[in-house]
UniProtKB/TrEMBL annotation:
One of its GO terms (cellular component) is cytoplasm. Belongs to the peptidase M17 family. GO terms for molecular function: manganese ion binding; metalloaminopeptidase activity. PROSITE patterns: CYTOSOL_AP (PS00631). The keyword Protease applies. The keyword Hydrolase applies. InterPro entries: Leucine_aapep/pepB, Macro_dom-like, Peptidase_M17_C, Peptidase_M17_N_1. Residues 308-315 form the Cytosol aminopeptidase domain. It comes from Pukyongiella litopenaei. One of its GO terms (biological process) is proteolysis. The lineage of its organism: Bacteria, Pseudomonadati, Pseudomonadota, Alphaproteobacteria, Rhodobacterales. This is Leucyl aminopeptidase family protein.
Length: 460
Protein backbone atom coordinates (compact mmCIF):
# COMPACT_ATOMS: atom_id res chain seq x y z
CA UNK A 1 0.00 0.00 0.00
CA UNK A 2 1.56 3.32 -1.05
CA UNK A 3 2.12 5.98 1.61
CA UNK A 4 4.14 8.31 -0.55
CA UNK A 5 3.46 11.58 -2.30
CA UNK A 6 2.82 11.65 -6.03
CA UNK A 7 5.56 12.83 -8.34
CA UNK A 8 5.04 16.39 -9.59
CA UNK A 9 3.26 16.35 -12.93
CA UNK A 10 1.72 18.97 -15.22
CA UNK A 11 -1.48 16.95 -15.05
CA UNK A 12 -1.88 17.43 -11.28
CA UNK A 13 -5.13 19.22 -10.53
CA UNK A 14 -4.61 22.48 -8.58
CA UNK A 15 -6.43 22.29 -5.25
CA UNK A 16 -7.64 25.50 -3.64
CA UNK A 17 -8.44 25.11 0.05
CA UNK A 18 -10.97 27.72 1.14
CA UNK A 19 -12.31 28.79 4.50
CA UNK A 20 -15.97 29.74 4.53
CA UNK A 21 -15.29 33.47 4.73
CA UNK A 22 -12.66 33.24 1.99
CA UNK A 23 -14.95 31.77 -0.68
CA UNK A 24 -16.54 35.04 -1.80
CA UNK A 25 -13.23 37.03 -2.03
CA UNK A 26 -11.64 34.15 -3.90
CA UNK A 27 -14.53 34.03 -6.38
CA UNK A 28 -14.20 37.77 -7.02
CA UNK A 29 -10.79 37.06 -8.56
CA UNK A 30 -11.97 34.21 -10.78
CA UNK A 31 -13.46 34.25 -14.30
CA UNK A 32 -17.23 34.61 -14.44
CA UNK A 33 -17.66 31.02 -15.61
CA UNK A 34 -15.82 29.69 -12.54
CA UNK A 35 -17.88 31.86 -10.20
CA UNK A 36 -21.12 30.76 -11.84
CA UNK A 37 -20.14 27.07 -11.56
CA UNK A 38 -19.13 27.30 -7.91
CA UNK A 39 -22.27 29.23 -6.92
CA UNK A 40 -24.52 26.92 -8.91
CA UNK A 41 -23.07 23.91 -7.06
CA UNK A 42 -23.55 25.52 -3.64
CA UNK A 43 -19.93 25.33 -2.50
CA UNK A 44 -19.62 27.20 0.82
CA UNK A 45 -16.24 26.06 2.21
CA UNK A 46 -17.49 23.73 4.92
CA UNK A 47 -15.26 20.87 6.00
CA UNK A 48 -15.69 17.92 3.71
CA UNK A 49 -17.06 19.93 0.81
CA UNK A 50 -15.27 19.36 -2.48
CA UNK A 51 -15.91 20.53 -6.01
CA UNK A 52 -14.22 19.94 -9.35
CA UNK A 53 -14.29 22.96 -11.65
CA UNK A 54 -14.35 22.01 -15.34
CA UNK A 55 -12.70 23.85 -18.20
CA UNK A 56 -14.05 24.37 -21.66
CA UNK A 57 -13.40 20.78 -22.69
CA UNK A 58 -15.10 19.39 -19.59
CA UNK A 59 -11.87 18.22 -17.95
CA UNK A 60 -11.25 19.59 -14.43
CA UNK A 61 -9.01 22.65 -14.34
CA UNK A 62 -9.02 22.93 -10.54
CA UNK A 63 -10.59 21.51 -7.42
CA UNK A 64 -11.92 23.20 -4.29
CA UNK A 65 -11.88 21.86 -0.74
CA UNK A 66 -13.67 23.36 2.24
CA UNK A 67 -11.58 24.42 5.24
CA UNK A 68 -14.36 26.06 7.26
CA UNK A 69 -12.98 28.21 10.14
CA UNK A 70 -10.09 27.96 12.58
CA UNK A 71 -12.59 27.42 15.40
CA UNK A 72 -14.21 24.52 13.57
CA UNK A 73 -10.86 22.99 12.60
CA UNK A 74 -9.83 23.03 16.25
CA UNK A 75 -12.51 20.40 16.86
CA UNK A 76 -11.05 17.93 14.40
CA UNK A 77 -7.70 16.65 13.20
CA UNK A 78 -6.44 16.52 9.64
CA UNK A 79 -9.01 18.94 8.28
CA UNK A 80 -7.84 18.50 4.69
CA UNK A 81 -8.33 14.75 4.98
CA UNK A 82 -12.08 15.43 5.03
CA UNK A 83 -11.67 16.36 1.37
CA UNK A 84 -9.16 13.64 0.51
CA UNK A 85 -11.80 10.98 1.10
CA UNK A 86 -14.34 12.71 -1.18
CA UNK A 87 -12.36 13.88 -4.20
CA UNK A 88 -12.39 11.64 -7.29
CA UNK A 89 -9.32 9.51 -7.90
CA UNK A 90 -6.50 11.50 -9.37
CA UNK A 91 -3.42 13.56 -8.53
CA UNK A 92 -3.81 16.90 -6.79
CA UNK A 93 -1.45 19.69 -5.77
CA UNK A 94 -2.26 22.25 -3.09
CA UNK A 95 -2.40 25.65 -4.83
CA UNK A 96 -3.58 27.91 -2.01
CA UNK A 97 -5.32 28.17 1.33
CA UNK A 98 -3.19 26.36 3.94
CA UNK A 99 -0.77 28.22 6.20
CA UNK A 100 2.85 27.10 6.03
CA UNK A 101 2.87 25.91 9.66
CA UNK A 102 -0.08 23.59 8.97
CA UNK A 103 1.14 22.13 5.69
CA UNK A 104 3.08 19.20 7.14
CA UNK A 105 0.26 18.02 9.38
CA UNK A 106 -2.33 18.36 6.63
CA UNK A 107 -0.09 16.55 4.14
CA UNK A 108 0.42 13.74 6.65
CA UNK A 109 -3.33 13.53 7.14
CA UNK A 110 -3.76 13.14 3.38
CA UNK A 111 -1.30 10.23 3.31
CA UNK A 112 -2.96 8.61 6.32
CA UNK A 113 -6.32 8.91 4.56
CA UNK A 114 -4.98 6.48 1.94
CA UNK A 115 -4.93 3.69 4.52
CA UNK A 116 -7.32 0.78 4.11
CA UNK A 117 -7.03 -2.59 5.81
CA UNK A 118 -7.82 -4.63 2.71
CA UNK A 119 -5.78 -7.75 3.38
CA UNK A 120 -8.92 -9.92 3.33
CA UNK A 121 -10.82 -8.10 0.56
CA UNK A 122 -10.73 -8.97 -3.12
CA UNK A 123 -11.92 -5.53 -4.16
CA UNK A 124 -9.20 -2.90 -3.97
CA UNK A 125 -9.81 0.83 -4.09
CA UNK A 126 -8.47 3.63 -6.22
CA UNK A 127 -6.80 6.44 -4.34
CA UNK A 128 -6.54 10.18 -4.36
CA UNK A 129 -2.89 11.22 -4.47
CA UNK A 130 -1.19 14.45 -3.46
CA UNK A 131 1.95 16.13 -4.75
CA UNK A 132 4.15 17.02 -1.79
CA UNK A 133 3.67 20.69 -0.87
CA UNK A 134 6.76 22.87 -1.01
CA UNK A 135 8.55 23.41 2.27
CA UNK A 136 7.73 20.15 4.08
CA UNK A 137 10.10 17.37 5.09
CA UNK A 138 8.89 14.81 2.58
CA UNK A 139 10.97 11.88 3.84
CA UNK A 140 9.84 12.43 7.43
CA UNK A 141 6.15 12.67 6.54
CA UNK A 142 6.29 9.57 4.35
CA UNK A 143 8.15 7.67 7.07
CA UNK A 144 5.57 8.58 9.70
CA UNK A 145 2.71 7.58 7.41
CA UNK A 146 4.26 4.21 6.55
CA UNK A 147 5.06 3.53 10.21
CA UNK A 148 1.53 4.41 11.25
CA UNK A 149 0.29 1.98 8.61
CA UNK A 150 2.45 -0.73 10.20
CA UNK A 151 0.85 -0.02 13.58
CA UNK A 152 -2.64 -0.19 12.09
CA UNK A 153 -1.96 -3.37 10.11
CA UNK A 154 -0.59 -5.19 13.16
CA UNK A 155 -3.54 -4.19 15.35
CA UNK A 156 -6.14 -4.95 12.69
CA UNK A 157 -4.82 -8.41 11.87
CA UNK A 158 -6.80 -11.15 13.65
CA UNK A 159 -4.96 -13.38 16.08
CA UNK A 160 -5.26 -16.42 13.83
CA UNK A 161 -2.78 -14.61 11.56
CA UNK A 162 -0.88 -12.68 14.23
CA UNK A 163 -0.18 -14.82 17.26
CA UNK A 164 3.04 -14.57 19.28
CA UNK A 165 4.96 -16.44 16.57
CA UNK A 166 3.93 -14.10 13.78
CA UNK A 167 4.38 -11.02 15.93
CA UNK A 168 7.96 -12.20 16.40
CA UNK A 169 8.22 -12.67 12.63
CA UNK A 170 7.00 -9.11 12.09
CA UNK A 171 9.73 -7.84 14.43
CA UNK A 172 12.33 -9.89 12.58
CA UNK A 173 11.11 -8.49 9.26
CA UNK A 174 11.43 -4.95 10.60
CA UNK A 175 14.91 -5.70 11.93
CA UNK A 176 15.94 -7.08 8.56
CA UNK A 177 14.68 -3.98 6.77
CA UNK A 178 16.94 -1.70 8.80
CA UNK A 179 19.89 -3.92 9.64
CA UNK A 180 18.95 -4.42 13.29
CA UNK A 181 19.52 -7.51 15.41
CA UNK A 182 16.52 -9.45 16.65
CA UNK A 183 16.54 -12.41 19.02
CA UNK A 184 13.57 -14.33 20.39
CA UNK A 185 13.37 -16.44 23.55
CA UNK A 186 10.57 -18.99 23.29
CA UNK A 187 8.56 -21.39 25.41
CA UNK A 188 10.27 -23.13 28.33
CA UNK A 189 13.48 -21.30 27.54
CA UNK A 190 11.77 -18.32 29.18
CA UNK A 191 11.94 -20.20 32.48
CA UNK A 192 15.56 -21.13 31.95
CA UNK A 193 16.39 -17.47 31.22
CA UNK A 194 14.35 -16.13 34.16
CA UNK A 195 11.23 -14.66 32.60
CA UNK A 196 8.74 -16.54 34.78
CA UNK A 197 5.74 -14.22 34.50
CA UNK A 198 5.86 -14.06 30.69
CA UNK A 199 5.93 -17.85 30.69
CA UNK A 200 3.10 -18.16 33.23
CA UNK A 201 0.74 -15.91 31.29
CA UNK A 202 1.43 -17.50 27.91
CA UNK A 203 1.91 -21.16 28.73
CA UNK A 204 -1.77 -22.15 28.31
CA UNK A 205 -1.82 -21.14 24.64
CA UNK A 206 -1.21 -23.52 21.77
CA UNK A 207 1.35 -20.96 20.56
CA UNK A 208 4.29 -20.69 22.92
CA UNK A 209 5.05 -17.36 24.64
CA UNK A 210 8.04 -15.35 23.52
CA UNK A 211 10.27 -12.44 24.47
CA UNK A 212 11.28 -10.42 21.41
CA UNK A 213 14.48 -8.34 21.67
CA UNK A 214 15.33 -5.98 18.79
CA UNK A 215 18.49 -3.84 18.95
CA UNK A 216 19.74 -1.16 16.55
CA UNK A 217 22.38 1.55 16.61
CA UNK A 218 25.85 1.66 18.13
CA UNK A 219 26.21 5.25 19.33
CA UNK A 220 24.20 7.86 21.14
CA UNK A 221 21.78 7.80 24.09
CA UNK A 222 20.28 4.44 24.92
CA UNK A 223 16.51 4.25 24.46
CA UNK A 224 14.51 1.13 25.35
CA UNK A 225 10.91 0.66 24.21
CA UNK A 226 8.77 -2.01 25.90
CA UNK A 227 5.45 -2.98 24.32
CA UNK A 228 2.69 -5.23 25.58
CA UNK A 229 2.27 -8.05 23.08
CA UNK A 230 -0.82 -9.92 24.30
CA UNK A 231 -1.97 -11.17 20.93
CA UNK A 232 -5.33 -12.23 22.33
CA UNK A 233 -6.74 -11.97 25.82
CA UNK A 234 -9.51 -14.32 26.84
CA UNK A 235 -9.09 -13.13 30.42
CA UNK A 236 -7.67 -16.52 31.34
CA UNK A 237 -9.57 -18.39 34.05
CA UNK A 238 -11.22 -15.06 34.94
CA UNK A 239 -12.85 -15.38 31.53
CA UNK A 240 -14.10 -12.24 29.82
CA UNK A 241 -17.71 -12.01 28.74
CA UNK A 242 -18.48 -11.95 25.01
CA UNK A 243 -18.47 -8.16 24.70
CA UNK A 244 -15.21 -7.81 26.56
CA UNK A 245 -13.50 -10.28 24.26
CA UNK A 246 -14.63 -8.73 20.97
CA UNK A 247 -11.65 -6.40 20.47
CA UNK A 248 -8.98 -8.47 22.16
CA UNK A 249 -7.01 -8.95 18.96
CA UNK A 250 -5.88 -5.38 19.65
CA UNK A 251 -4.39 -6.23 23.05
CA UNK A 252 -0.99 -6.34 21.38
CA UNK A 253 -1.42 -2.67 20.49
CA UNK A 254 1.48 -1.65 22.72
CA UNK A 255 3.78 -3.96 20.76
CA UNK A 256 2.47 -2.51 17.50
CA UNK A 257 3.16 1.00 18.77
CA UNK A 258 6.75 0.37 19.82
CA UNK A 259 7.46 -1.36 16.52
CA UNK A 260 5.97 1.59 14.65
CA UNK A 261 7.98 4.07 16.70
CA UNK A 262 11.10 1.96 16.22
CA UNK A 263 10.50 2.03 12.47
CA UNK A 264 10.32 5.83 12.54
CA UNK A 265 13.52 6.07 14.58
CA UNK A 266 15.46 3.70 12.34
CA UNK A 267 14.16 5.07 9.04
CA UNK A 268 15.02 8.63 10.10
CA UNK A 269 18.39 7.47 11.47
CA UNK A 270 18.02 9.13 14.86
CA UNK A 271 21.40 8.94 16.65
CA UNK A 272 20.33 6.58 19.44
CA UNK A 273 21.04 3.07 20.63
CA UNK A 274 17.59 1.56 20.34
CA UNK A 275 16.27 -1.54 22.05
CA UNK A 276 12.74 -2.90 21.67
CA UNK A 277 11.43 -5.53 24.09
CA UNK A 278 8.09 -7.24 23.48
CA UNK A 279 6.67 -10.00 25.66
CA UNK A 280 4.46 -11.80 23.13
CA UNK A 281 1.81 -14.12 24.58
CA UNK A 282 -1.75 -15.29 24.21
CA UNK A 283 -3.69 -15.35 27.49
CA UNK A 284 -5.67 -18.56 27.05
CA UNK A 285 -7.54 -21.16 29.09
CA UNK A 286 -6.12 -24.66 29.51
CA UNK A 287 -5.30 -27.16 32.20
CA UNK A 288 -1.98 -25.47 32.88
CA UNK A 289 -3.29 -21.88 32.92
CA UNK A 290 -2.17 -19.73 35.82
CA UNK A 291 -4.87 -19.30 38.45
CA UNK A 292 -6.41 -16.67 40.72
CA UNK A 293 -4.63 -16.98 44.04
CA UNK A 294 -1.33 -18.12 42.54
CA UNK A 295 1.84 -16.37 43.68
CA UNK A 296 4.27 -15.68 40.84
CA UNK A 297 7.89 -14.71 41.32
CA UNK A 298 9.04 -12.11 38.80
CA UNK A 299 12.39 -11.71 37.10
CA UNK A 300 13.16 -8.91 39.55
CA UNK A 301 12.46 -11.24 42.48
CA UNK A 302 9.29 -9.48 43.57
CA UNK A 303 6.40 -11.83 44.26
CA UNK A 304 2.97 -11.11 42.78
CA UNK A 305 -0.38 -12.36 44.07
CA UNK A 306 -2.76 -13.09 41.21
CA UNK A 307 -6.18 -11.75 42.09
CA UNK A 308 -7.37 -11.62 38.49
CA UNK A 309 -5.91 -13.51 35.53
CA UNK A 310 -7.40 -10.82 33.30
CA UNK A 311 -4.81 -8.33 34.60
CA UNK A 312 -2.09 -10.16 32.72
CA UNK A 313 -0.57 -7.35 30.69
CA UNK A 314 1.24 -5.83 33.65
CA UNK A 315 2.70 -9.24 34.48
CA UNK A 316 4.39 -9.77 31.13
CA UNK A 317 5.49 -6.15 30.99
CA UNK A 318 7.03 -6.46 34.45
CA UNK A 319 9.54 -9.11 33.37
CA UNK A 320 10.41 -7.13 30.23
CA UNK A 321 10.79 -3.90 32.22
CA UNK A 322 13.05 -5.63 34.72
CA UNK A 323 15.28 -6.72 31.83
CA UNK A 324 15.24 -3.22 30.35
CA UNK A 325 16.19 -1.73 33.72
CA UNK A 326 19.17 -4.05 34.17
CA UNK A 327 20.82 -2.36 31.19
CA UNK A 328 20.38 1.11 32.77
CA UNK A 329 19.44 2.94 29.55
CA UNK A 330 18.95 6.69 29.35
CA UNK A 331 15.19 6.30 28.97
CA UNK A 332 12.64 3.47 29.17
CA UNK A 333 9.23 3.89 27.57
CA UNK A 334 6.45 1.31 27.88
CA UNK A 335 3.29 1.30 25.80
CA UNK A 336 0.29 -0.91 26.45
CA UNK A 337 -3.43 -1.27 25.96
CA UNK A 338 -3.53 -1.79 29.68
CA UNK A 339 -6.63 -0.53 31.50
CA UNK A 340 -10.23 0.39 30.82
CA UNK A 341 -9.83 2.93 33.61
CA UNK A 342 -7.62 5.04 31.34
CA UNK A 343 -10.42 5.15 28.75
CA UNK A 344 -12.89 6.25 31.40
CA UNK A 345 -10.50 8.99 32.52
CA UNK A 346 -9.62 10.57 29.16
CA UNK A 347 -11.67 8.79 26.49
CA UNK A 348 -10.40 6.92 23.47
CA UNK A 349 -8.81 9.84 21.62
CA UNK A 350 -6.12 10.82 24.15
CA UNK A 351 -3.06 8.81 25.14
CA UNK A 352 -2.52 9.17 28.90
CA UNK A 353 1.04 8.82 30.17
CA UNK A 354 2.80 8.60 33.51
CA UNK A 355 6.28 9.83 34.37
CA UNK A 356 8.17 11.39 37.27
CA UNK A 357 10.23 13.74 35.11
CA UNK A 358 8.56 17.15 34.75
CA UNK A 359 10.93 18.11 31.94
CA UNK A 360 10.00 15.04 29.90
CA UNK A 361 6.30 15.67 30.52
CA UNK A 362 6.53 19.29 29.41
CA UNK A 363 8.50 18.47 26.26
CA UNK A 364 6.11 15.65 25.35
CA UNK A 365 3.01 17.78 25.90
CA UNK A 366 4.47 20.57 23.77
CA UNK A 367 5.36 18.10 21.03
CA UNK A 368 1.87 16.60 21.14
CA UNK A 369 0.37 20.03 20.53
CA UNK A 370 2.76 20.72 17.65
CA UNK A 371 2.01 17.51 15.79
CA UNK A 372 -1.66 17.18 16.77
CA UNK A 373 -1.21 13.87 18.59
CA UNK A 374 -2.97 14.40 21.95
CA UNK A 375 -1.53 13.06 25.20
CA UNK A 376 -2.31 13.82 28.85
CA UNK A 377 -0.20 13.30 31.94
CA UNK A 378 -1.63 11.25 34.81
CA UNK A 379 0.14 10.93 38.17
CA UNK A 380 2.22 8.21 39.75
CA UNK A 381 0.28 9.03 42.93
CA UNK A 382 2.35 7.70 45.88
CA UNK A 383 -0.62 7.61 48.26
CA UNK A 384 -1.99 4.70 46.21
CA UNK A 385 1.10 2.52 46.61
CA UNK A 386 -0.47 0.52 49.42
CA UNK A 387 -3.30 -0.51 47.08
CA UNK A 388 -0.90 -2.74 45.14
CA UNK A 389 0.55 -4.39 48.25
CA UNK A 390 -1.42 -7.48 49.34
CA UNK A 391 -1.01 -9.38 52.57
CA UNK A 392 0.86 -12.46 51.36
CA UNK A 393 3.07 -11.21 48.49
CA UNK A 394 5.06 -8.14 47.51
CA UNK A 395 2.53 -6.99 44.92
CA UNK A 396 -1.11 -7.45 43.88
CA UNK A 397 -1.82 -7.62 40.16
CA UNK A 398 -5.46 -6.51 40.50
CA UNK A 399 -6.22 -4.43 43.59
CA UNK A 400 -9.89 -4.14 44.50
CA UNK A 401 -11.93 -1.06 45.18
CA UNK A 402 -12.76 -0.02 41.63
CA UNK A 403 -10.93 3.31 41.74
CA UNK A 404 -7.72 4.63 40.10
CA UNK A 405 -7.17 1.50 38.02
CA UNK A 406 -4.89 3.21 35.51
CA UNK A 407 -2.76 4.70 38.28
CA UNK A 408 -2.40 1.50 40.28
CA UNK A 409 -1.42 -0.37 37.11
CA UNK A 410 1.22 2.25 36.36
CA UNK A 411 2.50 2.10 39.94
CA UNK A 412 2.77 -1.68 39.61
CA UNK A 413 4.92 -1.31 36.50
CA UNK A 414 7.13 1.34 38.09
CA UNK A 415 8.13 -1.16 40.81
CA UNK A 416 10.15 -2.97 38.12
CA UNK A 417 12.15 0.08 37.04
CA UNK A 418 14.64 1.59 39.45
CA UNK A 419 17.83 2.47 37.57
CA UNK A 420 16.51 4.40 34.55
CA UNK A 421 14.13 7.30 33.79
CA UNK A 422 10.75 5.82 32.91
CA UNK A 423 7.47 6.80 31.27
CA UNK A 424 4.45 4.59 30.68
CA UNK A 425 1.66 5.06 28.10
CA UNK A 426 -1.77 3.48 28.65
CA UNK A 427 -3.17 3.68 25.12
CA UNK A 428 -6.39 2.49 23.49
CA UNK A 429 -5.06 1.95 19.98
CA UNK A 430 -8.47 1.73 18.35
CA UNK A 431 -10.71 4.08 16.38
CA UNK A 432 -14.29 3.08 17.18
CA UNK A 433 -15.88 5.43 14.62
CA UNK A 434 -14.23 6.46 11.37
CA UNK A 435 -12.79 9.97 11.30
CA UNK A 436 -10.69 11.87 8.75
CA UNK A 437 -7.44 9.96 8.13
CA UNK A 438 -8.43 7.50 10.85
CA UNK A 439 -10.76 4.77 9.58
CA UNK A 440 -12.43 2.50 12.08
CA UNK A 441 -9.90 0.03 13.45
CA UNK A 442 -6.38 0.12 14.78
CA UNK A 443 -4.75 3.53 15.16
CA UNK A 444 -1.51 4.96 16.51
CA UNK A 445 -1.53 7.14 19.61
CA UNK A 446 1.34 9.08 21.10
CA UNK A 447 4.05 7.85 18.74
CA UNK A 448 4.24 11.04 16.66
CA UNK A 449 4.41 13.10 19.83
CA UNK A 450 7.21 10.90 21.11
CA UNK A 451 9.11 11.10 17.82
CA UNK A 452 8.92 14.89 17.94
CA UNK A 453 9.89 15.08 21.61
CA UNK A 454 12.77 12.58 21.70
CA UNK A 455 15.48 14.86 20.29
CA UNK A 456 14.89 17.31 23.14
CA UNK A 457 14.41 14.66 25.79
CA UNK A 458 17.61 12.81 24.83
CA UNK A 459 19.65 15.89 23.82
CA UNK A 460 20.14 14.60 20.30
Amino acid sequence: MPFTFADPTPDAIPLHVLETDAVAPWLDGQPDAVGAWVRANGFTGKLGETLLVPGGNGAPTMALAGYETAARRARTRYALAHAARKLPAGVYGIASGIAAEALETEALGWLLSLYRFDRYRKKKITRVHLVAPDGIDVARVETIAASEALIRDLINTPTADLGPDRLAAAARDLAGEFGADCTVIEGDDLLDRNYPMIHAVGRASATAPRLIDLQWGSAGPRLTLVGKGVCFDTGGLNLKQRGGMALMKKDMGGAAHVLGLARMIMALALPVQLRVLIPAVENSVSGNAFRPGDILTSRKGLTVEINNTDAEGRLVLADALALADEDEPDLILSMATLTGAARVAVGSDIAPFFCDDDGFAQMLSAAAARVDDPVWRLPFHPAYEDKIEPVIADLDNAPGGGFAGAITAALFLRRFVSAAPYAHFDIYGWQSVSAPARPKGGVGQGVRALLDALPGVLDL
